[in-house]
Amino acid sequence: MRVDIGNALASEADPGIDRDALDDLDERVADAHDRIARGTADDEFGYASLNLPERTDAAEIEDAVAGFDPEAILTVGIGGSALGAITITEALAGDSPVDHYALDNVDPAHVNRLLDDLPLDETAVHVVSRSGTTAETLANFLVVREAMESAGVDWAERTVVTTGESGPLRDLAEAEDLPALDVPEGVPGRFSALSTVGLVPAAMMDVDLDALLAGGRAGADALTGSLYDCPAYAYGAVAYALDQRGASVNAMMPYAEGLESFAEWFAQLWAESLGKDGGGQTPARALGATDQHSQLQLYRAGPRDKLVTVVRPRERPDSPIPETDVADLEYLGGQDLGTLLDAEFEATEASLAAAERPSVRVEIDRMDAESVGRLLFDVEAACILAGELYGVETFTQPAVEWGKKAARGLLGGGDFEEADAVREKTELVVE
Ligand SMILES: O=P(O)(O)OC[C@H]1O[C@H](O)[C@H](O)[C@@H](O)[C@@H]1O
């Protein structure tokens, strides 16, 4: 991964970081790196995520799915138990004959439609929950199971589970004798893309898991104690420093359709990890060039509270634009769609810089397994580094847990005081 922070310097942008401040920050990065390296070596909760590229056993995952030859894969999970898998297959399995769908919400209209459309007798189901208790995931799984049964499909033959050591999903897998993979120890869901959690559908779609993990390992090898030598830390440190200077929003804007879900994955990673103690940088999702024609107006001319992160692969497949003799379109003829997209990318950066708005450029070599593995690893490392600089507990999400308990209490799944707060809602209704 390559990161260019030039357009985040105070000489170019407001808010921006001056060179002296960057040097001071680099000393804090060195300390944070020591902490991260210690946590990683000791397999501490959360830091253990950075060991995944080294530890994840691609062959074990490939063996577990070897008996499946589906037309479609249905991931049943939510948050960190779905977004990594979706991101990876969207980025890397575009040409696969197998389609990957996800049920990461419990909107009945969507669930019913999807189950009506799926070839259930040719669908493999991957049910993922680290805790094994998440209501949305478990409820969706029960609905899927029932739909398969009603269609005369042996759901147990078509299901693989990934979950923690114990919990209701583990119990269910054991009771039904389902193949069950383990969520790695010490790895929060949002940091688990490069594990069984994120890789099962990719394996069924013939993504090169070894290359993906090799990309992650290259990221791990590149972690050093200076932001000037380490792209992951450069990104994490600069995003943090800009937030401290007023850029409280980080608009993640990949210029590649295959990375649209990456922005969604990033949003969970950044928000759940860093949104603590009254601070944190709000992730926004955008897609270049599409959102250049909508959100960019705000990014360039709205409040000075944003960092725009533009991401692109440095190589793209060819797609020539045919010549035309329409006078005003002649400049397009003979060009390539990729050249146009890159021109849009550079135009966005320049347009932000001309208005003194900070942006950071993140580039990967191309949309292949190794580069995407590197991107995911590096952004996780950036997030962990930022967590150290903020001084927050990066690996917990107590605010999310609150809502989970409230919803569960409302459905009669236990006596939770959080559910009382829902019942006590203040109303001021206008109809
Ligand atoms: O994997 P699960 O235990 O089902 O959790 C799925 C998701 O649930 C929660 O909402 C957490 O805040 C997320 O971090 C997690 O990824």
UniProtKB/TrEMBL annotation:
Q: CDD domains, from UniProt?
A: SIS_PGI_1 (cd05015), SIS_PGI_2 (cd05016)
Annotated Pfam families = PGI
Q: Primary place of residence?
A: cytoplasm
Recorded GO molecular functions are: glucose-6-phosphate isomerase activity
* GO CC annotation terms, alphabetical: cytoplasm
> Could you say which enzyme class this protein belongs to?
isomerase
Record's keyword terms, sorted: Cytoplasm, Gluconeogenesis, Glycolysis, Isomerase
This molecule's function is given as: Catalyzes the reversible isomerization of glucose-6-phosphate to fructose-6-phosphate.
Q: Which family does it belong to?
A: Belongs to the GPI family.
Tell me the HAMAP family matching this sequence.
Answer: G6P_isomerase
Q: Which PANTHER family match?
A: GLUCOSE-6-PHOSPHATE ISOMERASE
Protein name (record): Probable glucose-6-phosphate isomerase
What is the species listed in this Swiss-Prot or TrEMBL entry?
Answer: Halosimplex aquaticum
Source organism lineage?
Answer: Archaea, Methanobacteriati, Methanobacteriota, Stenosarchaea group, Halobacteria
